[in-house]
Amino acid sequence: MGARRGEDVEVVTAPGRLPGNDEPAVRERARAIPEAAVARLAVYLRVLSGLAEQDVTTISSEELSAAAGVNSAKLRKDLSYIGSYGTRGVGYEVEVLVDQIERILGLTRKHSVCVVGIGNLGHALANYAGFPGRGFPVSALFDVDDDLIGVPVGGILVSHVDDIPRVCAEREVSIGVIATPPPAAQGVCDRLVSAGVQCILNFAPVVLQVPDHVEVRKVDLAVEMQILSFHVARRADEAANADESGMVVPG
Amino acid sequence: MGARRGEDVEVVTAPGRLPGNDEPAVRERARAIPEAAVARLAVYLRVLSGLAEQDVTTISSEELSAAAGVNSAKLRKDLSYIGSYGTRGVGYEVEVLVDQIERILGLTRKHSVCVVGIGNLGHALANYAGFPGRGFPVSALFDVDDDLIGVPVGGILVSHVDDIPRVCAEREVSIGVIATPPPAAQGVCDRLVSAGVQCILNFAPVVLQVPDHVEVRKVDLAVEMQILSFHVARRADEAANADESGMVVPG
DNA sequence: CCGACTTTGTGCACACGTTCACAAGCGCTA
DNA sequence: TAGCGCTTGTGAACGTGTGCACAAAGTCGG
C-alpha cells in the first residue's frame, strides 16, 4: 500500500472502534484510486473483455500491459488499487479481473445517459454511445430545434431542452452529454445540474462553470488538434535545429 | 489529461552543454513545455480570442485564469513557459498573448488534416474539424465503402483508404484522424504512418501501436463514460457510507 | 518434500506538475 | 524623482504519479 497522509494509514488492523470506521476498506480504497489509474483500468477492461471472448482464461501482467500499451509495473500497481486478485507465479484470471474492474468502475449498475444537441456530433453520439461501454443506455435526447422534437434518433425520440428537468428525472438520467454549439452549453449545463445530473461529458469548446459536487469531463477537439500541432511544430524546429548545427545525415 | 503511453520520458530537463544546444532557447523552451501546460495554452487561446473579439485589449492573470477555470498562479507559470509578455502592475496585452500562443502551438502554419472512416462520427468530424481551430483545413477523407467513394462530404470527395499514401502525400497531410470501427484502426494507422503522417488523433477504442516518432492522442468515449461511472459509484458509496455511520441530516 | 523458476505486489526513490508566497518591476501620483 | 500600490514572474515546497527492483508467494518437476 502506498504511504498516504498520516491519517488513513491505520487501516491495517482497524484499531479504534470508531463509528463508521469498521468498513471493509473497499469503499475507502475507491476514494484513493488516482484518476489516471481509473482511466487505464477502463482500457485494461476493454482489452480483457476482448481476451475473454477469445477464451483466454489467464494472463500475466507482462502480456496484458503490452496489449494495453503501458509499463508492466504500472499495470500491476493499477490493479493493486482494486485489490489482490492475481496469483504469483501464474498471473491473473481474466474473468476475475473483468468482474473486479467492472465493480470498481460502477459498471454493475446501468447508467442512464442523455445527449443534448442533436447536430452532427449529437447524432453520432446517440447512435454510438450506448454500444461501446455496454452499460450506458442512451435514454433521452434533447435539442432546441422544433423540427427535431419528436423525431426518433437511434430509437429515442428527441425532446425539447426545456423538458430536461422532467425527462431526466423520469428516466433517472445520471450522465449528461453536451454536444451543443458553444453559446448554448452553459445554459444546458445549468439545466442538467438543476435536474440532478451529477456527471457531465462536455464536447462543446467552453469552460463550464458548475457546483463542486458535479463532475465534468471535457472532450475538446480543437485542443487535441492544437496539441498535435504543437508536436508537429516542435518536430519541425528540432529538424531545423539539427540541420543548423551541422548534423550529418547518416548513410 | 488522461492516459498516454509511458514513452514521453525524453522530455526531461535539458542536460548539459551538448553541441547545438546554444540556440536562443526559444526552441529549447518549446521542448520543455509540459504537455499539460500545452493543453491549457490551447484553452487560454480560445478565451483570449473571444476577448479580442469583444475588443478587450488588456487582461490580468487573475481575470484570465477565472475565465479559463484554473488557478492564477498556474496560468502565470504556463505563460512563463512561452516567454515574458506581461507588464507588471498592468497585465497582459490580449493580442500579444494570442500571437505568442499561436506561435508556440504552431498555428501560424496550416495543418492539413485527413479523416479516415466516414461513418456517423467521421461525418461529424469532416464538417466540424476545420472550423473551431481555424488552422486545420480538412483536405482528405477516406473510407472503404465503395458507395461512399467519390461522394462529397463537407465539400471534400471521399477517397478509398488504399489511396492514403498517394493522397496524403499530394495534399501534404500532417494530421490523421481515425474514426473507423475498432478492427480497422490499426491497419489504417499503419497506412497513415507509412504515408508520412506524424500525428494521429484516434477515436477508435483500440490501443494503437506506432513507431516512436509518431505522436498519437486518443479520444475514447467509452473510457470517458466509465470514468464518470466511477465517480457516480464513488458518490453513491460515500452517501451509503455516511448513511450507515449514522450521520444525522441537519435541519 | 524440496529447490528452481515464475510472476505478483509494493517500498522506495525519483520526476513531474501544482501551489504558495514573495521579490522584482512597472505605472501613477504628487 | 521618490514613493506607493498593483501584477507579473519564479524559486522553492509540496503532493501526486511513475518506474525500478526485490521480497513474498505461488507452481512445477524431480
From TrEMBL, chains A, B:
One Gene Ontology cellular component: cytoplasm
Pfam families attached to this UniProt entry: CoA_binding, Put_DNA-bind_N
DNA-binding region: 43-82
Predominant subcellular localization, coarse grouping: cytoplasm
An annotated GO BP: response to redox state
MF-aspect GO terms: DNA binding; DNA-binding transcription factor activity
Residues reported in the UniProt entry to bind NAD(+): G117, I118, G119, N120, L121, G122
Cell location: Cytoplasm
CoA-binding domain span: 107-207
Spans annotated as Disordered: 1-25
SMART domains to which the protein is assigned, alphabetical: CoA_binding
Keywords: Cytoplasm, DNA-binding, NAD, Repressor, Transcription, Transcription regulation
Function (record text): Modulates transcription in response to changes in cellular NADH/NAD(+) redox state.
Subunit structure as annotated in this protein's UniProt entry: Homodimer.
Protein family according to the UniProt entry: Belongs to the transcriptional regulatory Rex family.
NCBIfam families, per database record: PRK05472.1-3, PRK05472.2-1, PRK05472.2-2, PRK05472.2-3, PRK05472.2-4, PRK05472.2-5
Protein name: Redox-sensing transcriptional repressor Rex
Organism: Kutzneria buriramensis
